[in-house]
């Protein structure tokens, strides 16, 4: 089935996301269309509608659906769908902060912790977003996110993720920070403390200048230096944080290039209204293939159409 992507001249302006507010929005009509699609198990219509509305509009549709049918839309979708398509459409219906909270929870439950997913989310979210995610985590799981992070990580890496959760924006002088980080590398063992303090309490623009200055002072690429002086999860965490300061879209494109379903869902849903156009451009430069065509090759059926609907178009 060919995807139906609704278009509007004014829905494409002023954002680097791919999913925009649908301009001719009538939630009562959408709710009726969803009900009809659920009755006849028409997954294609569900995909086309939900991927052509932004998150705020999906929330309104869910409320309208409840008024119209006295049923919960999420529960109805769970009954009608299954597998990866079900997961993706349910993720689209979650509030953004709840979706990030769910991803953090998923990264910590079960055998082993997915440390890189923790870093991905904590490194690419603003202080305000992290506060919302923290509140959503408490509301959703009745647990304190900071305590959970401390319990599922250890050592300097635990200190890093907790500091990121409490991300600050303290004023500082670039050269002083450069000197402090350079000094932390002297001696037999590198000192992690200045890296945790500086890298989690400054603005992105400030840190970009610090990293440039540090490379110039050391005469060495930062990634090579981190590989030599740190190890384990803390090394990985610093490298992710550095990449997200320097070029978050490139880091996220690398993550997407694995085509692991959970990562594709996580990144595409959470960045669809923010900067997925930038990630798409980075993906093309990184892999030589567009994200759209790669998704076409990797996935099938309505699940594929839903991902293409979020991706929006070929590059």
From TrEMBL:
PANTHER family: ANNEXIN. The keyword Lipid metabolism does not apply. Keywords: Annexin, Calcium, Calcium/phospholipid-binding, Repeat. InterPro entries: Annexin, Annexin_repeat, Annexin_repeat_CS, Annexin_sf. GO terms for biological process: cell adhesion. A pair of annexin repeats may form one binding site for calcium and phospholipid. GO terms for molecular function: calcium ion binding; calcium-dependent phospholipid binding; phosphatidylserine binding. GO terms for cellular component: cytoplasm; nucleus; plasma membrane; vesicle membrane. SMART domains: ANX. Transmembrane segments: none annotated. The gene is anxa14. The lineage of its organism: Eukaryota, Metazoa, Chordata, Craniata, Vertebrata. The keyword Repeat applies. This is Annexin. Belongs to the annexin family.
């Amino acid at each position: 089935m060919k995807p139906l992507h609704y278009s509007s001249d004014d829905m494409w302006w002023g954002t680097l996301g791919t999913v925009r507010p649908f301009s001719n929005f009538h939630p009562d009509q959408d709710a009726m269309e969803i009900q009809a699609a659920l009755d006849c198990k028409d997954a294609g219509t569900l995909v086309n509608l939900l991927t052509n509305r932004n998150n705020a509009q999906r929330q309104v549709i869910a409320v309208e659906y409840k008024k119209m049918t006295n049923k919960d839309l999420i529960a109805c979708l769970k009954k009608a769908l299954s597998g990866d398509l079900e997961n993706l459409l349910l993720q689209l219906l979650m509030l953004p902060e709840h979706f990030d909270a769910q991803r953090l929870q998923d990264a910590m439950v079960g055998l082993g912790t997915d440390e890189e997913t923790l870093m991905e989310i904590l490194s690419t979210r603003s202080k305000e977003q992290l506060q919302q995610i923290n509140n959503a985590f408490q509301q959703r799981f009745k647990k304190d996110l900071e305590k959970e992070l401390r319990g599922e990580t250890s050592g300097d890496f635990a200190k890093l993720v907790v500091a990121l959760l409490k991300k600050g924006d303290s004023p500082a002088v670039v050269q002083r920070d450069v000197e402090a980080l350079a000094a932390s590398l002297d001696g037999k063992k590198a000192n992690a403390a200045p890296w945790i303090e500086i890298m989690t309490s400054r603005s992105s623009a400030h840190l970009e200048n610090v990293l440039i200055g540090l490379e110039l002072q050391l005469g060495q690429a930062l990634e090579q230096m981190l590989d030599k002086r740190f190890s384990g999860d803390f090394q990985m965490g610093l490298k992710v944080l550095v990449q997200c300061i320097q070029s978050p879209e490139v880091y996220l494109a690398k993550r997407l290039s694995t085509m692991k379903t959970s990562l594709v869902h996580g990144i595409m849903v959470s960045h669809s209204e923010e900067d997925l156009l930038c990630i798409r451009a980075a993906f093309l430069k990184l892999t030589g293939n567009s994200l759209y065509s790669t998704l076409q090759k990797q996935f099938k059926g309505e699940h594929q159409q839903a991902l293409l609907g979020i991706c929006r178009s070929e590059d």
